[in-house]
UniProtKB/TrEMBL annotation:
Belongs to the beta-lactamase family. It comes from the Bacteria. The keyword Secreted does not apply. This is Beta-lactamase family protein. Pfam families: Beta-lactamase. It comes from Chryseobacterium endalhagicum. Residues 39-339 form the Beta-lactamase-related domain. PANTHER family: BETA-LACTAMASE-LIKE 1-RELATED, PENICILLIN-BINDING PROTEIN. Residues 1-20 form the signal peptide. Keywords: Signal.
Length: 352
């Protein structure tokens, strides 16, 4: 008996759709169980599988409102901003503005003067993979001074003092997480494009992808979630300032799924750039790093992952290019253990 190609295609579509629905139900069940155990923590999750989108959310925007958190609710994505910045860096490579192995010296603002023994040593890829050896911002001190807005008073003068007084690169070539590194990457982008970081990310990511819930300087919107510290106290969203490329973008599950969809498509500008960011530029016994991403591998999977924590919210994003899925988890409380446990459970029980 002959089977038409159209019939086979229909069967494959139905099978793929049913498989995706099954995955979404399992993820929703895991998220629902977590919310029942932790009803004080609001959550929004977006998942994409073979270009099909799925969402689940629980909780309210704030204690006084009846408005529920949904896929469009605004969260601080915190350090997930770094993968947006690294994608912009990779786009600058494809635009022939920079090369990853270029030294940073000629791209820094004039206020920054590297000491002679540090010149022509730090590469752009070193900044993006956290191995530059530059000193970082003292967050503990800043939090003690202002627990609501610890980074708001950081200026170019603040950063110039740190960089210009650096006489030795501590652990150069070894992984050491760096906010100042991604702040410098933002300034390198400003140098090569002649625009502000805000203008660049809007023009090259937010507007092309129609990400209506991804905000920078102005985030006073009705669908904004409330941020909570680990003790449940209310935290302010971080205000926009010079450290923005390292962690100050606000977004939603729906917009981050839109970004994931573009990243997983090798034909898009973001997808082509993402492939550049996925190349291993740092490796030791504990980790592999691309540009901004942790790269995690097992017997049959390669996962690209980035987490984020503000003072009052936690988030994590990851994707598997070969199996064509991605997931974003957003919490309205700073709770890095919960977000990691959720991802681990979803991966082990559903995605692996």
């Amino acid at each position: 008996m002959k089977t038409s190609s159209k019939f086979l295609a229909a069967l494959l579509f139905i099978s793929s759709f049913s498989f995706g629905q099954n995955i979404s139900k399992k993820i929703d069940s895991i998220i629902n169980d977590n919310y029942k155990k932790n009803p004080e923590v609001g959550i929004s999750v977006g998942f994409i599988n073979n270009n099909e989108e799925y969402y689940t959310a629980h909780g309210k925007l704030n204690a006084e409102s009846d408005s529920k958190i949904d896929k469009n609710s605004l969260f601080e994505i915190a350090s997930i901003t770094k993968i947006l910045t690294s994608n912009l860096i990779a786009q600058a490579v494809t635009d022939h503005k920079i090369k990853l192995d270029d030294y940073i010296d000629g791209f820094l603002p004039k206020a920054y003067i590297l000491q002679e023994n540090l010149r022509n040593k730090i590469k752009i890829s070193d900044l993006a993979s956290h191995q530059s050896g530059l000193p970082d911002i003292d967050f503990a001190k800043l939090i003690a001074q202002d627990p609501q807005q610890p980074v708001h008073k950081i200026t170019e003068e603040t950063l110039a003092a740190i960089i210009n007084n650096c006489s030795e690169l501590k652990d150069y070539g070894k992984y050491r997480y760096s906010t100042i590194g991604y702040t410098l990457l933002g300034q390198i982008l400003e140098k090569v494009y002649g625009k502000t970081y805000d203008e660049i990310i809007r023009a090259k990511i937010i507007k092309p992808l129609h990400m209506k819930n991804t905000l920078t300087k102005d985030f006073n919107v009705k669908n904004r979630t409330t941020a909570h510290n680990p003790e449940g106290g209310i935290q302010e969203f971080f205000k926009w300032n010079i450290t923005a490329p390292a962690g100050l973008v606000k977004s939603s599950a729906s917009d981050m799924v839109t970004f994931l969809k573009a990243v997983l498509n090798k034909e898009t500008v973001m997808g082509k750039a993402a492939i550049i960011t996925e190349k291993i530029v740092y490796k030791d016994q504990k980790r592999e790093m691309g540009l901004g991403f942790n790269i995690v591998t097992d017997e049959s999977n390669t996962i690209y992952m980035k987490s984020g924590d503000s003072m009052g919210q936690s988030s994590i994003i990851c994707y598997n290019r070969n199996k064509n899925w991605g997931i974003i988890i957003l919490l309205d409380q700073r709770n890095s253990k919960m977000r990691q446990d959720l991802l681990n459970t979803i991966y082990d029980k559903v995605l692996k």
